[in-house]
Amino acid sequence: MARSAIINVMVQAAMKAGRSLARDFGEVQNLQVSMKGPGDYVSAADRRAEQIVHQELSRARPGYGFLMEESGAIDGEDGQHRFLVDPLDGTTNFLHGIPIFAVSIGLERQGQLVAAVIFNPAMDELYTAERGGGAFLNDRRLRVAARKNLSDCVIATGIPHLGRGDHGQALVELRNVMGDVSGIRRAGSAALDLAWVAAGRYDGFWEHGLSPWDIAAGVLLVREAGGFATDQKGDHEVVDKRDIVAGNEAVHKALLKALARPA
Ligand code: IPD
Ligand code: CA
Ligand code: CA
Fold first, then answer.
1. Which residues have C-beta within 8 Å of that of residue 236, sequence separation ≥ 6?
2. CB within 6 Å of ligand 1 — which residues?
3. Domain-terminating residue out of 141, 173, 188
4. Tell me, what CATH number does 101's domain have?
5. For the chain, what is the mean pLDDT?
6. Within this chain, do residues 102 and 221 fall inside the same structural domain, yes or no?
7. pLDDT at residue 182 is higher than 90
8. Which ligand does the CA of 68 lie closest to?
9. Which residues does 161 contact at the CB level (< 8 Å), separation at least 6?
10. pLDDT tens sequence across 79-95
């Protein structure tokens, strides 16, 4: 599969950071059993991965801007392009030795998502998408699942936890959706949740309280795999909205409806 120059640049950055995370993940698994625990080690791994991504991308595309989870916004001279970077999505999984985490890099041109790379080094899965060019897992073209009835669907979500989000709203939404579907999953990486919707593993996904770096790349993957990704009001301008609903056309519509049901 021939990849464009910009996808190659993003893949190289994601894979280099991913290899660094994979080495640190091995160490975290050893640290699990120590008294001190791996918390500080994970923060260092996260920062290291972000530095690698930033270094690689700014060397290849010097004028581009950045929005990165750890370092925040860095304006670029060209004013047209912005990378949205989560160097480690799925931190809690990483900390607990669960191999579901990823490097996520999206690219906007004039505010429009144009390229996406998500890499899970523990599963050696590389997801790529380019606007108008389709979505891929490694070299395989992706298509969202075709199921139309929620009753056949496995739907992913993110459940808020200690100190985060609206627990009451989450319980209402879970109750609304659980009665309609064949399964709900909470894997712990929004970037991979979206990539797995693009890959047809999940039929849909919803979550609140997300940041642009969590979803930028995943949103383009879903769309390029033929799916829909909007905020909870159905607005397609979703990257800065904090909440997301994704799936094929029918599932996306049904999820929006189920989520809007009153308590
Ligand atoms: C988190 C993951 C998780 C989602 C959280 C995010 P992080 O990102 O994507 O699945 O439920 O809301 O903050 O902290 O692991 O980069
Ligand atoms: Ca994240
Ligand atoms: Ca992160």
1. 229, 230
2. 86, 88-91, 158, 188-190, 207, 209-210, 214
3. 141
4. 3.30.540.10
5. 95
6. no
7. yes
8. 3
9. none
10. 999 999 999 999 999 99
- For residues 21 and 111, membership in a common domain is answered with yes
Alpha carbon of 67 to ligand 3 centroid (Å): 12
pLDDT tens digits, one per residue of 203-243: 999 999 999 999 999 999 999 999 999 999 999 999 999 99
Cα 242 to ligand 2 centroid, rounded to whole Å: 12
Q: List Cβ neighbours of 127 (8 Å cut-off, separation of 6 or more).
A: 116, 117, 118, 119, 135, 136, 137, 142, 195, 198, 199, 217, 221
Regarding whether 184 and 204 lie in a shared domain, the answer is yes
Domain termination residue (choose one: 141, 164, 190) = 141
Which residue type, as a one-letter code, is found at position 89?
A: D
* 3-state secondary structure (DSSP) of residue 120: strand
Ligand closest in space to the Cα of 212: 2
Structural domain range at position 168: 150-259
> 186: which 2 tokens?
């909470």
Nearest-atom number in ligand 1 for the CA of 165 is 12
Do 113 and 156 fall within a single domain? no
User: Helix 39-60 vs helix 5-31: angle between axes, to the nearest 10 degrees?
Assistant: 170
